[in-house]
Fold each of these.
Amino acid sequence: MNRYTTVGAICVALSLLAACAGPIESRTRLPMTDAQIQTVQNSVTHNFKDPNSAQFRKLRWFENRHADGTISNTVCGEVNAKNSFGGFVGFSPFAGRMNGGQFVLYGVARPGSIAFNSLCPV
């Protein structure tokens, strides 16, 4: 399975998971500590060819309150890094969640993708 197929499968799974928890009724933006930001960045770049070249922007963390009373969280942002040829590929959206002190990455989409728009409000 290639990277884009994996992201598509993740998006479908997230949509089904969100349907089980009920629609999101409200979102609250949460502050992130420097340690949490570093954890997210390390997780996102874990399999990159040149993780030290990574540039991040639009990093944000939300607490989601669902219609059925459950609470979840979402961490979103965009990352740009160098490829095998040494060129930057463009900012790509990513999403995941904080679980205790760890970051669980849902996936990184291709540049310009709208894959995580429903999870990651602007």
Amino acid sequence: MILIPDIDALPKVMGDDGEFHATDEAVDLSGTPAEAWAALLFFWALGLTVFYQFFTRYVMNDSAAWTEEIARYLLIATVFVGAAIGVAKNNHIQVDFFTASCRPGWGGPWPCSPMCCVSSSWSLRSY
């Protein structure tokens, strides 16, 4: 049985004057790492570059030639910095089969080195 909360028991958001009265917690960005700020900077630069490309192509009917390549490099930089953040937080994408099948003691400091070699060789063969 699914319990549905009583709506009248929830905190009131709309006041008697018909206006919303919601309060949010204060935002604390002091724990944000430098990599996150770099990713945000790359992302905004990418957005501005694509907007400039759109503006020059469709409004001015004369596309800027450099914007497509710069946008590509900014996207790559955003993805690389985001991947580094994911690895640092251990939130990156991983295949559970390989991580679960790696036993400690395989290959010294890299416990998955034989499994990685096998998977790499198979992917190169299929290419």
Amino acid sequence: MMLNLIKKSHLFRKITMCLFRTSKASHLLTGEQAEERALIHLREQGLQLVCRNFRCKHGELDLVMQDQHTLVIVEVRYRKSDHFGSAAESITPAKQSRIIAATQTYLAANKINPPLRFDVVALSGNGQLDWIKNAF
């Protein structure tokens, strides 16, 4: 009986949270804003958007762009402060592996095999934007 009460109270919290949630968490909004700023910058540099936020079991591709004949996979990273490392430094080898695996899924799903490049757009809380081509 106690387990049923726990399950019911947990379900009640979930339903209540869904019903009364009016906006996204601030860290999600900050991430979306960072992606939008990166997208604007890359478009100004002549890249064209192909896909945004491609999701699969391996993870997510923030931006998929076209730079002439090259498909560019862009990881967007934002750090409010460099106190615990820069935005670019936050892309670990494990994260790189997930991005590569997600890219393979994207290519297979779209039946394409173009030249590829992996870029990083790193944004910091002070407004600095760094575009790192061929980051990995």
Amino acid sequence: MSKSNFSEEFKRDAVRQITERSYQVAEVSQRLGVSPHSFSEEFKRDAVRQITERSYQVAEVSQRLGVSPHLLYEWKKKFSLASGNQGNDQSEEIRHLKKELARVTEERDILKKATAYFARDAK
């Protein structure tokens, strides 16, 4: 794989043009004079983030970025395997927070009932 002669800032700007400004990959690639199929890791991660974090449909991201849905699914799988431990930590935290929410909700309900009971007696 050949090393690119473009600066990191130039590459980031190209990724920004594609992901934030919704320019087509082919258009940006043509302007930069590079193959549209040599995507940077940052571009791939941004594409996957649009699907996983921003909840865009794969077909929509695929069309907007000019890459095949199959390629997006491959990137999603690749980056989800790479961040597997982070996902486990998040799952554990979600379980903990759900338990805490249930406990706090139960405490709130008890306090509501106690308040109603004592308010009724005060009248």
